Amino acid sequence: MECIASGILLPDGPGVHDPCEREPTDTLSVITGQQAEAITQNAQHALRLLAFGQLYKVLNMNPLPPTKPSHRLSGSDKKGTCRKRQHEDEHTNDRQLFKKMKCNLMGVLDSKMMDPNHPMNALMRLNQVHPGLHYKLLSQSGPVHTPVFTMSVDVQGTVHEASGCSKKTAKLKVALKVLQALGYPAGFEVDLDSLSADERSDSEGRNHRSERNDRMSTSSRSNSVTSTDTCESRIPGPLLTPGGKNPVMELNEKRRGLKYELLSETGGSYDKRFIIEVEVDKQKFRGSGPNKKAAKASAALAALKRLFSDSKDPHNKTRGPRTPVGGQTSLSAHP
Predict the structure, then answer these.
(1) Compositional bias of type Basic and acidic residues: which residue ranges (predicted)?
(2) Confidence tier at 214 by pLDDT (50, 70, 90)
């Protein structure tokens, strides 16, 4: 009822989906906006009645008879047609009941606060000593599968910081650090371990999935391109010529008007592979990369190494005869 009263059925709310359907199915498509608004208002009204102890109105039932014998007014007849409690007695009993419930609740909370085995002892103890503390997220670093959060809190002008694999763990660690600085006994490590067990298991699961994706990425990369292109694609950063220039720009200076053709695009969203081919002097060169720009640079670099590397490297001058300027090399076309 609280969920419905919060507005999940309204048009701008999150809605309700059927978990038994394979495809996402909106179960609220059969009701109109007016009906959704009426249901939401009825739920809010029912919650207000519950808050004032009028559950019988929500269930459309008669109120239960009082457990204590009611006092009769002096003007009532012998049959008891007018049975009412006196106004003063009613409020007095309610106040006494409220005080008793409050004392019992405070006793339970105090016992949990002082229990060293309570799972939230560190945060609750610090909140008991210094209520109203504000925890701030300073930074978030590390990869997506193993993030590191740094939280801080200001206690009496002193800022304490701590890091953890989640915001909750970092918050617990900084609370533990403050308690130790205030001189409280260090008996909260067990609570911290029990609360951060879920975060560590989630982190290990993310690490396992990341390692599996890396292995799949490496195997698919080795099967989709040649050995030369694979070595070049594994080099981090942009591909550059030995002179430190962009391969596409340097090849364009030597042969203008070249056309790069996209041959294939493989892989999933986490490991895209593009293969681009360029024809230079009737020879075709291919390059691959995680994006079109990298594949284009790889193809241009392969053409530069094959056709123009002997012009700058003195060890490559004996590879074959060169034609005059403007001519073509005598090398056979690349398959």
Answers:
(1) 74-93, 198-215, 307-316
(2) low
Domains of the chain: 1-62 (1.10.1410.40), 121-199 (3.30.160.20), 226-315 (3.30.160.20)
d(CA 56, CA 240) in angstroms, rounded, equals 79
Give counts: helices (H), strands (E), the chain: 11, 6
| C-alpha–C-alpha distance, residues 240 and 184, integer Å | 60
Give me the residues paired with residue 141 across strands.
148
Tokens of 221: 């990369």
The mean pLDDT value of the chain amounts to: 72
Is the pLDDT at 250 greater than 80, yes or no?
yes
95-114: buried (b, 16+ CB within 10 Å) or exposed (e) per residue? Answer: eeeeeeeeeeeeeeeeeeee
- Residue 329 has a pLDDT of 40
pLDDT at site 256: 87
Percent of all residues in the chain with a pLDDT value above 70, rounded to a whole number: 62
Place of tokens 């364009």: 252
Q: To 10 degrees, the CA torsion angle through 192, 198, 201, 205? A: -140
Task: Name the pLDDT band for 326 (thresholds 50, 70, 90).
Answer: very low
- How far is residue 196's CA from residue 240's CA, in Å, rounded to a whole number? 46
Give one word for 128, left, alpha or beta, with left for phi > 0 and alpha for psi -120 to 50: alpha
pTM for the model: 0.28
| Cβ-proximal residues to 70 (8 Å cutoff; 6+ apart), any chain | 83, 84, 85
Which of residues 83 and 5 earns the better pLDDT score?
5
Query: What CA–CA distance (Å, rounded) separates 188 from 119?
Result: 9
What is the C-alpha separation between 12 and 71, in angstroms, rounded? Answer: 53
Q: Residue 57 pLDDT more than 60?
A: yes
Which ranges constitute the DSSP H helices of 120-258?
Answer: 121-129, 167-181, 189-195, 197-224, 227-233, 247-254
How far apart (Å, rounded) are the C-alpha atoms in residues 84 and 75? 11
**Which residues lie below 8 Å from residue 153, measured CB to CB, with a gap of 6+?**
133, 134, 135, 136, 159, 160, 174, 175, 178
The first and second tokens of residue 217, run together, are 């990425």
